[in-house]
Amino acid sequence: MTAARIKRLFDIAGASVLLVLFAPVILLCALLIKLQDRGPVFHRRRVVGPSGEFDAFKLRSMCPNADAILEQNPGLRREFERNSKLRTDPRVTPVGALLRKLSLDELPQLWNVLRGEMSLVGPRMITPEELKRYGDAGWIFRVTKPGITGVWQVQGRQEVSFEKRIQMDLFYVQNWSLGLDCNILVRTPLAVLRGVGAY
């Protein structure tokens, strides 16, 4: 059996179990989001993978007019374009801040894993615009599915520069093994509880 086949079977088994375990949590989070502002529960983020672009599912953590707020504030827009993230983001709702801190907003991506678009472990998912910043390293997204967790998530998250993040993604792809995936999965809950770089 090929390594790719083993990883896929591992993803299917793991995502299936986790979806069952976390289904009540997802439902509770969805209820809180809906009660907060009556807006949509889920957010679709357009990202890239080996088979092209696809929608990665997330629990919505921002206000419904998030894009308009960003466009109306040039300073925020510049920071977002520079870091692909805002340290203090006025678009994030109170419920959304909690979801992000505990990484609960990522749970719907287990469905993306079952669909074969993502893996449990892999490079951090990126948008087509972010892919341009990867330069020659962009090849990794043509051969490797983005992951719900990965080296970046267990080694600092947003505290890590974009350039360092690229190096982490390269390290993962060039040194992949089932053991590495298991190591990252075991470290992920502690990283989430520590909350370093989660915003």
Could you characterize what this model shows?
- This protein has 10 helices and 4 strands; from the N terminus they run H-E-E-H-H-H-H-E-H-H-E-H-H-H.
- The chain is mainly alpha-helical.
- The chain has one domain.
- The strands form 2 sheets. It has a two-stranded antiparallel sheet.
- Strand 1 and strand 2 form a beta hairpin.
- The longest helix is centred in the first third of the chain and has 35 residues.
- The termini are far apart.
- The model has no long low-confidence stretch (mean pLDDT 88).
Architecture blueprint of SSEs:
Layout lengths: L2 H35 L4 E8 L2 E8 L6 H6 L2 H10 L10 H8 L7 H6 L4 E3 L6 H6 L6 H4 L3 E3 L1 H4 L7 H13 L3 H17 L5
Parallel strand pairs: 3-4
Antiparallel strand pairs: 1-2
Largest sheet: 2 strands, antiparallel
Number of DSSP-assigned strands: 4
Structural class: mainly alpha
Q: What is the string of helix and strand elements? A: HEEHHHHEHHEHHH
Tally of helical segments: 10
Distance between the termini: 40 Å
Strand content: 5-15%
Query: Considering DSSP H and I runs of 4 or more, what fraction of the residues is helical?
Result: 40-55%
Q: What overall form do the CA principal axes indicate? A: globular
Using brief descriptors, characterize the structure shown:
10 helices; two-stranded parallel ribbon; globular; 199 residues; mainly alpha; two-stranded antiparallel ribbon
